[in-house]
């Protein structure tokens, strides 16, 4: 069957080496159900244009329906010498409908507009599935935040203790990032929702076929306005790969924290047995493999994106065979996320936080020093001086080996008069040196105060509902 779609002007078939290089059925066969659906839509516009009569259309749709069922059931598979999904399906169509009827379907279309359309159909459906998984993860983070409305933890910058925050606030920070990824897929879909069918090889069809009718039947919002762009552009694929890579990167940041949190040194979380692994030699081990695989797969997703961009770089218009290389990266990106997300969500849903340890660590590392400075600012001291004074208090604590709220009155007074000029002044400083007080004081919109975090949780869920 070699050269089945283009044998006419060739005296010989392709060499074995060329056929092997050219073949794409091992990865593009997953597009076969879309290809058959698009063929049905194409048959209808051929009929509308007077190129198939009523009987021919009915028979064509009947055969295509059977092919569709056999593709979906797995009964139909490409043959070794089929070049690509389009060639394989045409071969089967000719076998089942006969050469006269089967040979009419190719009029007015090219594999170039077919493949561009099928890829969009497939990626739109994959993006929908990924969005649903991401929303589940967002809800799991929201529910975990909701279950810990007042638990404090050490907030970090540079991985050093910075200021205490609510665990819920921290978890919701990850949820917002992931929700933006859901939005990105939604926004991407508006660009992916134009059908290139009818663009032909590059210049459009001369047979009076209606691209808008095909687009509508295939669930697109419309057809592309430019046939060259429709067949040659792959920014839709590249953008899909970017959003997938962004998801990978966002997951990897939470993953890295889970890896750290599950160490003896941090001791913030325990992983559920069903979502962690053991060691073949060390009986005591409980490893955060899901989080590590998430971290690793972020690299793979970035590779999918950069590989695809490298393929597209400097390609002249219109279609070039290089574009066959567009599929494996985006297929891999979607497969990777659809494999990773259920495990990742299960891991997050079953994390057990040691809230007592988190609370104990929250004030350590002098994480309330900013509260001392803010206290002085409220007493009218310029922040620059207040910052100096709070820093001096930390230095003194390090000398004495004590915490900020344990500094003697005399030391406070020596550091800044407003800190210790009277016993009442010193007590007022100690009053702000509590984790819950510090957290509650950050009560502007977006802050970690429990009242704001509760509002934030509702805002997140409302935003997620609209997606
Ligand atoms: N298999 C090709 C691809 O994936 C589509 C066919 C276009 N081939 C061609 N020689 N014009 O891009």
Automatic annotation (TrEMBL):
What is the superkingdom listed in this entry's lineage?
Bacteria
The residue ranges of the Argininosuccinate lyase C-terminal domain are 366-440
Q: Which residues form a coiled coil?
A: none
**Which enzyme type, at the first EC level?**
lyase
Q: Do the record's keywords include Repressor?
A: no
Cellular component annotations (GO), alphabetically ordered: cytosol
* Compartments where located: Cytoplasm
Q: Which family does it belong to?
A: Belongs to the lyase 1 family. Argininosuccinate lyase subfamily.
| UniProt name for this protein | Argininosuccinate lyase
């Amino acid at each position: 069957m070699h050269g089945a779609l283009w044998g006419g002007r060739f005296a010989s078939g392709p060499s074995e080496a060329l056929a092997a290089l050219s073949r794409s059925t091992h990865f593009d066969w997953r597009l076969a159900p879309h290809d058959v659906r698009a063929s049905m839509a194409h048959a209808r516009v051929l009929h509308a244009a007077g190129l198939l009569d009523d009987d021919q259309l009915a028979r064509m749709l009947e055969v295509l329906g059977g092919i569709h069922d056999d593709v979906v059931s797995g009964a139909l598979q490409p043959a070794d010498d089929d070049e690509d999904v389009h060639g394989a399906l045409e071969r089967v169509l000719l076998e089942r409908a006969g050469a006269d009827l089967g040979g009419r379907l190719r009029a007015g279309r090219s594999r170039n507009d077919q493949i561009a359309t099928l890829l969009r159909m497939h990626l739109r459906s994959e993006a929908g599935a990924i969005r649903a998984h991401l929303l589940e993860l967002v809800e799991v983070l929201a529910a975990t935040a909701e279950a810990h409305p007042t638990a404090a933890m050490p907030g970090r910058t540079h991985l050093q203790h910075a200021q205490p925050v609510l665990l819920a606030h921290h978890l919701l920070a990850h949820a917002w990032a992931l929700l933006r990824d859901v939005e990105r897929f939604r926004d991407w879909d508006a660009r992916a929702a134009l059908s290139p069918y009818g663009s032909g090889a590059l210049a459009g069809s001369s047979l009076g076929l209606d691209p808008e009718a095909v687009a509508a039947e295939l669930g697109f919002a419309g057809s592309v306005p430019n046939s060259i762009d429709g067949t040659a552009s792959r920014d839709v694929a590249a953008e899909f790969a970017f959003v997938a890579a962004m998801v990978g990167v966002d997951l990897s940041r939470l993953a890295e924290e889970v890896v750290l949190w599950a160490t003896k040194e941090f001791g913030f979380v325990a992983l559920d047995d069903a979502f962690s692994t053991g060691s073949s030699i060390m009986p005591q081990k409980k490893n955060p493999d899901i989080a590590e695989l998430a971290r690793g797969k972020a690299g793979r997703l970035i590779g999918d994106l950069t590989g695809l961009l490298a393929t597209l770089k400097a390609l002249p218009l219109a279609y070039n065979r290089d574009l066959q290389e567009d599929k494996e990266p985006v297929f891999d990106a979607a497969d990777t996320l659809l494999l990773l997300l259920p495990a990742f969500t299960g891991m997050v849903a079953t994390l057990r936080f040691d809230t007592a340890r988190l609370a104990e660590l929250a004030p350590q590392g002098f994480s309330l020093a900013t509260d001392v400075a803010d206290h002085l600012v409220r007493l009218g001291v310029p922040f620059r001086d207040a910052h100096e004074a709070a820093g001096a208090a930390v230095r003194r604590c390090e000398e004495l080996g004590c915490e900020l709220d344990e500094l003697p009155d005399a030391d406070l007074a020596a550091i800044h008069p407003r800190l210790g000029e009277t016993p009442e002044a010193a007590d007022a400083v100690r009053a702000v040196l509590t984790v819950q007080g510090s957290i509650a004081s950050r009560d502007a919109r977006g802050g970690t105060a429990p009242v704001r975090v509760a509002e934030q949780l509702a805002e997140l869920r409302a935003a997620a509902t609209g997606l």
